[in-house]
């Protein structure tokens, strides 16, 4: 049985989901049905990464 995760964001192509473990996953393609890979160990880490990316664009 595959783990259940909640998709909560998109970057216009890839999907981001959070699972019961708290890990944030990113889809490998722009599809709900393809693989997802861990992109952050927690939502806090994900938001910190996002904040750094935004800060680096200015």
Could you please describe the fold and organization of this structure?
The protein is of the alpha+beta class and 58 residues long. It has one helix spanning 43-55, and strands at 5-10, 15-19, 24-27, 36-40. It has one domain. The longest helix has 13 residues, at 43-55. This is SMI1/KNR4 family protein. It comes from Streptomyces lacrimifluminis.
Query: What helical percentage do the residues reach?
Result: 10-25%
Which value, in Å, is the CA radius of gyration? 12 Å
Question: Order of strands across the widest beta sheet?
Answer: 1-2-3-4
Terminal CA distance reads 44 Å
Order of helices and strands: EEEEH
Biggest pleated-sheet summary: 4 strands, antiparallel
User: Beta fraction of the residues?
Assistant: 25-35%
Shape: globular
Query: Averaged pLDDT, please?
Result: 90
In the predicted model, the low-confidence regions spanning at least 5 consecutive residues are: none
- Structural class label: alpha+beta
Number of helical stretches of at least 4 residues? 1
Protein name: SMI1/KNR4 family protein
What layout of secondary structure does this protein have?
Layout: E1 5-10, E2 15-19, E3 24-27, E4 36-40, H1 43-55
Antiparallel strand pairs: 1-2, 2-3, 3-4
